[in-house]
Amino acid sequence: MKPFYIDYPQEKIEEHQHAYRCMYCKIPTTVIFGLLENHAEDCTYRKQQSKWVQLEAKLKPHNEHFDEPHADEVD
Ligand SMILES: [Zn+2]
């Protein structure tokens, strides 16, 4: 699992000179801040990444006692 999600497609926000946003959900990068759960719930990128996270979780040996800070966001 990646600590930060910054490889989503970005586009420039016309009204702001140095501001960018996610191409899919149009949320500014300053709001997303590298966190998957800050994308819109129906964001294409978020959906894609969530699939990989679930896949990785299946492949890895599961640690029951590990406190996942964002586990409540998954479902
Ligand atoms: Zn997005």
Automatic annotation (TrEMBL):
This is Uncharacterized protein. It comes from Polynucleobacter wuianus.
